[in-house]
Design a protein that fits this description.
This protein is 54% helix and 18% strand. By secondary structure, the protein is an alpha+beta fold. Helix 1 packs across helix 3 and helix 1 crosses helix 4.
Length: 76
């Protein structure tokens, strides 16, 4: 995976972790048809984010693995 995509995945994790995000909102912002920028797909494939349903609304959340990666790579 390229460094650009890795950095964008970290951006996605920060963005999704800031507050509850709906699945539709997340896909609108993060999904791309560019085969070189597979941020959403790679984050899903690596188990860094998950989609859950709360009160009938699909939400995207950062997994424990995603939180760990984010803290390792962007420790403050």
């Amino acid at each position: 995976m390229s460094e650009t995509v890795d950095n964008l995945i970290l951006d996605l994790l920060e963005w999704a972790g800031a507050k509850d995000r709906t699945y539709d909102e997340t896909l609108e912002i993060w999904r791309t048809s560019c085969p070189r920028l597979t941020v959403w797909e790679d984050a899903n494939d690596r188990g860094l984010i998950e989609t859950i349903t709360v009160n009938g609304t699909p939400l995207v959340r950062v997994t424990r693995a995603g939180t760990t990666l984010l803290h390792e790579k962007r420790a403050r």
